[in-house]
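Regression check, calcium ion case 316:
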Amino acid sequence: MSSMGALNLRTALRRQRGIAVIMAILIAALAASVASFMMWQQQVWARQVENLTSLAQANAVSQAALEWTRMILAEDLKSGDIDHPGEVWATVVPALPVEGGRIALALTDQQGLFNLNNLVRNDKPSEVDIAAFQRLLVSLELKPDLANAVVDWIDLDSEVTSSGGAEDLDYLGMQPPYRAANQPLLDGNGLIRVKGFDAEAVARLQPFVTALPTPTPLNVNTASPQVLAAVFEGLTVDTAKSLVVTGGKYYKDKAEFRDRLPTRGAAASDQTFGLGSQYFLATGLMSFGRVQIINRALLARVGNKTRVIWQKHGDS
Ligand SMILES: [Ca+2]
Ligand SMILES: [Ca+2]
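Current build output:
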């Protein structure tokens, strides 16, 4: 075996061992959450509350799983600040059986998506980001003017940006009337309240956008061809496909990525992209009895701590 082959094998074995260890920790955490739940269950009159019981059980397991994802992200920092799909955090836990039900878990890097809150930086419309969002809209066959409506929705002032912008006067004239948020979006689904967006447009954008509390660089190690083509001017979705990280490879420095761009435009500035991420979405699908719920949490990794920015609970 070549030394390169041996190295790859060693890396693969190390990763497999890593996964085995984190799975053991997850299983122990989930077992503990179920055990404490069982004690509580003894006080509950059984049958008519069966669904509520399942729901409570699902939520207990969900909390344990969330703690586990926070630990994984903290652990990941030990191998440096690069984040790519070959790392342990990116492992999807498909359907793990726990007492009385099962759970599926996934962590996704949110900086591989287009951050809608990049459109306004330091309370000023960011032309570079607006142009990038317009390219994304066009590639999805949506109107590029929608970008200005999002800028107005986020920016503090009430001056309408032409063309396609909308502020209080536009929203107060709607049925029922409401006002422009004039603050960063909380998540991509918030677009539904922005003028010009309907459920279909939001659904089309959903796989490619996110809304993070601060402007963020794009992680080129996790970005899709659509988002790469939007952010880097002169890149088509087709050319971008060849830049997407696959098969355990990833970009180790910015120059390596820059060298592969067809043009070295201003869009490839340092604030535009990076190789790692601070924000991750944890998604857990729990099935207990007749109850099936999806819980989502946006996590921010700051220093070696992982904070929960928001949590949403919902029926699947
Ligand atoms: Ca990492
Ligand atoms: Ca505004």
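Comparison notes: Residues 3-112+278-315 form a domain with the Pantoate--beta-alanine Ligase; Chain: A,domain 2 fold (CATH 3.30.1300.30). The pocket of calcium ion (ligand 2) is lined by residues 152, 155, 157-158, 167, 180, 182 (CB under 6 Å). No diff flagged against the previous build.
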